Amino acid sequence: ELFDENEVNFVFANAENSPVNAHAIAHRFTTNRNIDAFFTTDTATTQAVFGLEKKKPIVFIAVEKPEEIALIHEKTNACGITDRISPYAVQELIELIPDIDQKRIGLLAKNETSRKLLLDEVTELFIASGYKVSIFTPLSEMELIEQLPSILTKIDVLVSPVPDSMIGSTMSLIAKETKEKKIPFLVCLEHGARCGALASRGVNYAKNGLTAADMLFAILEGEKKPYHFSVQQGSDEHIFVNKKKKKNFNIKESKKIIFC
To answer: Per-residue pLDDT for 70 more than 80?
Structure first.
């Protein structure tokens, strides 16, 4: 690793969804005296770095619940952006479907502790709104593929309410199966509608990156400390609808909707 003191230097590493890799990379980076600050992505990588580094600034880009993993306190050296989707934002996706009150809704997410809180919040909101809700939490992509035919016999609408790499990697398959069964597939990943879902919304991670860069620049210039920043909410204001599928489900136009 070569550094030029007159330039901004970046060192990249990908943990590839492995906690073991994340901790190994965190140890390598936090013991490198040439590194002045850290960008991290999701909860696991942020926890790995934050567990070892308590002085140099850490800016995270996509941590679902930073307050629950002790990142946020009076003199923290960490700040950043959450990619958590509001349950009400998920409900807006649901309300695109005509006669939704008569439908059985399936919630689909990977079986992880970090997903449980949002799933519980969404379930509680939907039940309070009078919807019939079933939750499906496969452990892996393979298990999801095996369970999907059975899942689709039990529901009228399939919703993935949590940003999820498992759903992202199986998006085209789920879109194909739901299309054949004429079941609306709604997903909280911004690019979901472009990948075959009926509709999607979610955090724009490119915008998150730009916001995080601005935060870190202010810190390195001495204008602010990490604890001066509140946790920023990632942008999710637009709903994306697959224009090829909108007629099949009578989706009405609105100012929030972008057809793609």
So the answer is: no
Single-letter amino acid code for the residue at 156: D
pTM for this model (two decimals):
0.74
- Give the DSSP H or E segment for 239: strand 239-241
Distance in angstroms (rounded) separating the CA atoms of residues 215 and 226: 8
CB-CB contact of 25 with 38 (8 Å)? no
Q: Measure the CA–CA gap between 23 and 52, rounded to whole angstroms.
A: 9
How far apart (Å, rounded) are the C-alpha atoms in residues 81 and 59?
Answer: 8
Q: Determine the angle formed by the axes of helices 43-50 and 19-30, rounding to 10 degrees.
A: 40
pLDDT digits (tens, 9 = 90+) for 160-171: 987 777 888 888
**Could you tell me if 126 and 91 are in contact, meaning their C-beta atoms sit under 8 angstroms apart?**
yes
CA distances from 143 to 61, 97, 146 (A): 29, 28, 5
Amino acid residing at 216: L
* Nearest alpha-carbon partner for 175 in 163, 165, 187: 187
Residue in the block written with tokens 């909280």: 188
Ramachandran region, residue 241 (left: φ > 0; alpha: ψ -120 to 50; beta: rest): beta
Greatest Cα-to-Cα distance within the chain, rounded to the nearest angstrom: 63
Q: How far is residue 32 from each of residues 27, 29, 242, measured CA to CA in Å?
A: 9, 5, 47
> What confidence score (pLDDT) does residue 178 get?
92
